[in-house]
Structures are given as C-alpha cells and as structure tokens.
Amino acid sequence: MKTSIVSAFIFWSSLFMAQVTSEKGVLGDFDGNGTKENAYTKVNDCNDGCDGKCETTIYFSDKKIKPFIISPAYDGTLYNLGDLNGDGKDEMGFYPGWCTSCWHPFYAYTLSETGWKPLVPPISTHCNQWEEEKFPIKKDPKKKGYVIITSSKWENDDIKVSSKSFKIN
Questions:
Q1: pTM for the whole structure
Q2: Where are the beta strands (DSSP E) in 1-157?
Q3: DSSP assignment, residue 61?
Q4: Of 15-24, 61-70, 80-89, 114-123, which range is least confident?
C-alpha cells in the first residue's frame, strides 16, 4: 500500500511538474526602458523522461514584452547577459535542461522591435565546460562590438573547449 501511494505521488508530481512555472527567474532591463523585469520559465508537455513536445516558454513580468518558446528544452537556466551589443538592453541567456547527454546548446537572445531574436548562433557546450566555469559568452573587453564565445566540440576523441572573439554589430 505504501509503495502504491509513493508511486502515485511520484507519477502525479511528474505530470504536475511538467506544466508548472519555474520558481527560478532572472531580473534585467530587457527592453531598455530603465525598469527591471523578471523573466521566468514554464515547461509545456514534458515529463521526467523528456517525452512530449518539451517546450519551455520564457515569460516576463512586464506583459508588454512578448514571451518566446525554446524547444526542445526541459526547463533550464536563465541568465542576464548584460548589454552585449550596446543597444541599452540586457541580453537574455538560456541553458536548456534535458534528460540525456551532457551536450547542450547555450542560447543568447536580444530583444528587437519585432521580438526576440538570436544574438549569435546557438553555442555548443558540454558539462566539462560548465564544470571548468568557462561561461559561453561575454563581452570582449578589447574589441567594441565583439563578444568572446567559448564552446565545446568533439575533436580527436576528446572534448575541446575553445574561445574566439566574434563580431555581433
């Protein structure tokens, strides 16, 4: 009986968790109006085994900022990247969660007049890179209009982490 109750609780909890809004969020001035907004996530149609659509929607406390969807993603971590492109708005970073593999893209977005768009192509990352605290993107302090992208790739039977300056403007 006790096993049945625990199993039922775990089953229903996993279904509920697949639809809940994340408690985690991040503050930033994503629209450049001088007021900080809270960004937060909600997962849709995804269970603990990553079965389903597995869409994560990023919402904002300021309802004038349109939400956007990243798929596949089983929730993830939001980052305020600061103003990387000099437009007066904070850029949004997102590292998606997933049920298998250590390879995950890191996404960097900027808000344009038409909505959210990628600042750079998705950045390939591996768990090793994160464990070594090598963040995927930051402003290049030596070159205006550039960012330093740190990515992971499989090369010669090993995971290599490398950094390169990349023009964004």
A1: 0.82
A2: 21-28, 37-44, 55-60, 68-70, 76-82, 91-96, 104-112, 115-118, 123-125, 137-139, 146-155
A3: S
A4: 15-24
